[in-house]
User: Fold this.
Amino acid sequence: MKILLDMMGGDNAPLAPLEGAAQVIKAHSDIEIVGLGDEQAVRALAQEKNIPLTGITLVNCTQNIEMDDEPALAIRRKKDSPTVVGLSMLRDGEGDAFVSAGSTGALHVGSSLILRTLKGIKRPALACMVPSKEKNYLLVDCGANAECRPDMLQAFGIMGSCYMNKVNGVADPVVGLANNGAEETKGPPLYQQAHQLLKETPGLNFMGNIEPRDVPMGYADVVVCDGFTGNVILKMTEGMAKMILTILKGMFKKNIGGMIAALLLKKDLFALKKRMDSEEVGGAPLLGAKCPVIKAHGSSSGKAIKNAILQAKTCVEKDLCGTMQAALNEMNARQKATEQTASAESQE
Amino acid sequence: MKILLDMMGGDNAPLAPLEGAAQVIKAHSDIEIVGLGDEQAVRALAQEKNIPLTGITLVNCTQNIEMDDEPALAIRRKKDSPTVVGLSMLRDGEGDAFVSAGSTGALHVGSSLILRTLKGIKRPALACMVPSKEKNYLLVDCGANAECRPDMLQAFGIMGSCYMNKVNGVADPVVGLANNGAEETKGPPLYQQAHQLLKETPGLNFMGNIEPRDVPMGYADVVVCDGFTGNVILKMTEGMAKMILTILKGMFKKNIGGMIAALLLKKDLFALKKRMDSEEVGGAPLLGAKCPVIKAHGSSSGKAIKNAILQAKTCVEKDLCGTMQAALNEMNARQKATEQTASAESQE
Assistant:
């Protein structure tokens, strides 16, 4: 299996991608890595840090998309960037998946424009695993599509369910629609209509609406919403965890009692902090792209890049994209049949 | 000053309203309470619990709006409910403010239909104080208007700023627009347009967008958003606090070390839990209603009702509605002037 890897994306590039790639190669003989980026810089760093390049083919890219580049413009103009080269190679069958810690916007736009999307999907959704009380859940869309139509939310539910089943091994994943009330009639029209579509989707384990208060409790395996709302859920999770952990830190430093308590709880507190850390939960798949594309966190370490590559590997092995396409085809066929019935009935 | 009080709203009615009213009367000789509800039941309870009715005038209501009543329908049909009677009396000058722990939806619809709104406001916004790291902030709208126009978000900012200044005594409150990025161009069109309007509002201390990650840090005194997003922010705050506090509880119960740590931190943990409790932060004002209307939490205790009444008192004393109307008038005058200039320029 050939994984295409952006060597220049993220705060710690090219060191983190290099370390991640080397760690994967060392443990997985079935993976070949194609590293895209400034070949000379990568080679020099590999030598300096004594990281072997065995199993890693380097493809030189003379450009790079920066975080402040306008995504659509960058995709058109920076043809020799790892993002554009990687997605083009993926489209042309020269790799099985693409992993990048670079600009999310460029990866999202590039996936639509270069790699293209599954049939029935106009723009891929960004999904990510978010920590909750019981278990991590998949949030779709967590920020890519600020504006959505009801059928997009339905597709998010279907693709999210496929992902949790194939990649995370959850049998019959519970899908919830984030909404401001349990009743079907709650929320703006987008959410009311999406609720009906999700409810009617065959084979989907749809629990109905999930209120934001219950989202952190982990009652759903997949939480569906538009990208604006998803961003709020994701960032409120981060912000609230940070806020409460900061308050706790204050308690521990306040006096000798606090310090003793901190020592007693040390291991558990470390685990809690780690669990709340978005870096620990892996990369974010772009669901709906024609082939597996994984967006690794911008601040990814070598370990995080390694995990993102292994996530991509599972997507390929389990034929995630094929499974999602089959499920989307079924949804589309059913919708067409319903429309035809409705039109035939109205003509009678 | 005469405060109208719904005696039948909330989970603990009529006991909580009765206790709250009695506590207020005892400490504030300038307040007169008009209690609306089942007079016989209230009198019987007052006698049973030995709560004096001095300073409380009871107005008998034969109906009550329940939580599962459809708000608009209930306002039309239940004319003799505390909500409809209270808002009518307020409109007719038979009271200075209305406090209710009953149905939020009915109070919201009723405020528009019966009491009416300030000039330039179509529907009032529900605002509430939300705990954050540094201090509590005012979230507007926290759930009443799921769909908003850009000028509504502008008005939320203006009214929220007036409220924090007049009622909470914050000088020049910092107003932030909840959005998925710091740049002006971020978010859906609604948020991009609202950003421009808020930026151009004279006298408003607008900090620009505030990312949801920073909302719990308390960087803004007023956080502006549509009611759907506001509900997500409010409920994620609740949910995340509950989740992390539950995990902490697990640590404390796990072993003897945890138990000792819990003992050492007892006071601080209690304070943290209390701080995260929505019940502690008072009632939610319906900003934009013609006179002060305070929605107390459904699970309000006597103390919470007392606090909501005192909140209403401050709104009256500081002429909150008059101040908000003056600020809104200025906004409208400026907008008209801008439109006229633009139209004159286009005709040249």
About this structure: Chain B has a mean pLDDT of 93. Chain B touches chain A through 52 residues (CB under 8 Å). The two ends of chain B are 55 Å apart (CA to CA). DSSP finds eleven helices and eleven strands in chain B.
